[in-house]
Amino acid sequence: MNQKIKQKIAFFILFLSICLVVIPIVLLVIFIGIKGLPAINWEFLTGLPKQGMRAGGIFPAIVGTVYLVIGAVLFSLPIGILSAIYLSEYAKENILTRLIRLAIINLSGVPSIVYGLFGLAFFVIFFNFGTSVLSGSLTLGIMILPIIITATQESLKSVPYAFREVSLSLGATKWQTIKNIVLPNALPGILTGTILGIARAAGETAPILFTVAAFYLPHLPKSIFDQVMALPYHLYVISTQIPGVPDRMRYGTALVLLVMVLSINLIAIILRYQLRKKKRW
Amino acid sequence: MVEKKVEVKNLNVWFGQTHSLKDINLDIYDNEVLTIIGPANSGKTTFLRMLNRLNELQENFRFSGEIIFDHKNFFDFSVQELRKKIGMVFALPVPLPLTVFDNVAYGPKLHGIRDRGKLKEIVERSLRLAYLWEEVKDRLNASAFLLSGGQQQRLCIARTLACEPEIILFDEPCSGLDPVSTAKIEEAMQELKKDYTLVLVTNNVKQAARVGDRTAFFLSGELIEIERTDRLFTAPKDNRTEGYISGRFG
Q1: Is the ipTM of this complex over 0.85?
Q2: pLDDT of B249 higher than 70
């Protein structure tokens, strides 16, 4: 067999594997789209659930998910970025910091139901926040913390060392160097990590199960100590707990969740592209 | 008698187990161009980075000895103050990921100058001193990475000048540049030595002969010889110096 044919076979195998990756994603979106689209109308998006959630809209669940995601990001973004800066710029290399790094990497592999139980024990009961937006946001925040820290550390590391050296050699302090040079150039990567975290927080059911999610709550929360409905949990409820929910409502809910997560990702991609256009090295 | 700007006494530097500089005794005079020559690994860059306190960024760095700067103990200055007074130009041009203007204004901003008019004045003066103003005056707001290699290195010189240093350290500033860019940078140095003290580390023996008032020869972390440039090149005392400058090794 000559080299040209070998090369063609190799390309074909590579192409096949990318198809195997892309096809399920495309099918999923199309499938959910076709099945869910008939349910989408103004009332569905902005109305309250009716007839024991067998009719009406999913507005409270949309709002609940948005609140939870905002809360989770408000909590985890500053803490995540600051601790990543500490770990990658200030902390000395020793056993303790190595253990911390290892722990952070492992935290991202902890099953989400474990975060849910932790949230229940720690925020709901110990801190007495009750089942509330606050408890749910904090639980989701802790869950996405490792994602944000890891992404931030990676993007801080990707800023060339020479830039830091130049900045220091001109008489900058370490903090001035981080603030003026390192952070602005690490921003695209930090953004990506944050968005991945947001997408994960928006889609998870387990962490909010015991900490915030309401089975049925046909009004909006008045404070952060109120319960809310959330899309993933709502989807679970109408799919398994209530008989006689029309199919299109389930797929409609799934479609809304999918579109929310995908558009967050899209915003991230556009933002990152804009930021990357500016840098050249 | 010319003023002594820097006095280095019995300087030893180690990185881990490696003894990089051995008992260096050397004075740098006000407004002179001191060139340092020597083969790779002779410690010349380490010596230069000592004067800007950049060696300390490496974890396994140790040193002993004394440095006097402006008649005061070198280490009585804060690191930031010292690095402002003793600027550094690196071997490879490293523009910061900012515009041309912001690259030059970076140092002055760090040292507290906020006034836009004052910054413009400093930027223009520094770019003129580095022989770059005419080439970039119309694209001050472009990314510094759009400049050519030679322009980038002159930008780095302008950036160092903008901090208003007293001494400028050049670490093989022309090693990555073509002869025309090299000539421009040497021209800038000739102009700069009227107002500044320059220390130039170079791999290029001819460059040392062209720009240096005095030349020091480093070999394996030792200072072999320091002498007026014309004397060092015509009548070196040490035969290792002679071997190096005549191209027998290194």
Answers
A1: yes
A2: no
Residues in a beta bridge with A49: A56
- The DSSP-derived string for A45-61 is HHSPEETTTTEE--HHH
Average of pLDDT values for A3-25? 93
Q: Does B142 touch chain A (CB under 8 A)?
A: no
Distance CA B129, CA B163 (A): 13
User: Strand B214-219 relative to strand B33-37: parallel, antiparallel, unpaired?
Assistant: parallel
Retrieve residue A126's tokens: 């110990």
Interface residue of B96, B99, B146 to substitute, partner A, most A CBs within 10 Å? B96
A168 in contact with B, Cβ within 8 Å: yes
Residues A61-82 pLDDT 10s: 999 999 999 999 999 999 999 9
Residues A101-127: pLDDT tens digits?
Answer: 899 989 888 999 999 999 999 999 999
Residue pointed to by tokens 């507005």: A59
**Which band of pLDDT confidence, cut at 50, 70 and 90, is reported for residue A155?**
very high
**B205 to chain A nearest CA, in Å?**
27
Work out the average pLDDT over B20-25: 93
- A49 with A231: CB under 8 angstroms? no
Most confident of A18-22, A211-215, B40-44: A18-22
DSSP line for B24-88: EEEEEETT-EEEEE--TTSSHHHHHHHHTT-GGGSTTEEEEEEEEETTEEGGGS-HHHHHHHEEE
- For B107, the token pair is 């140092």
CATH of domain B4-245: 3.40.50.300
Question: B157 CB near a chain A CB, below 8 Å?
Answer: no
Map out the domains of chain B as residue ranges: 4-245
Spell out the domains of chain A, with CATH numbers in brackets. Answer: 60-240 (1.10.3720.10)
Among B146, B150, B151, B156, CA closest to B95? B156
> If pLDDT is split at 50, 70 and 90, which confidence band does B250 have?
very low
Cα angle at B227 between B221 and B232, to 5 degrees? 95
Looking up tokens 């192409």 gives: A15
Range B24-55 burial, b when 16+ CB lie within 10 A, else e: bebbbbebbbbbbbbeeebbbbbbbbbbbbbb
Residues sharing a CB contact under 8 Å with residue A33, sequence separation 6 or more, in sequence order: A255
How many CA atoms lie less than 13 Å away from A86 in the CB half-sphere?
A: 10
Q: Which of A170, A173, A185 sits opposite B106 (nearest CB)?
A: A170
Exposure of A277 in the CB half-sphere (CA atoms within 13 A): 5
Asked if B25 and B223 touch (Cβ cutoff 8 Å), the reply is yes
Which residues in chain B are closer than 8 Å to A278, comparing Cβ atoms? 143
Residue A142 in this model has a pLDDT that exceeds 50: yes
pLDDT at residue B1 in the model: 52
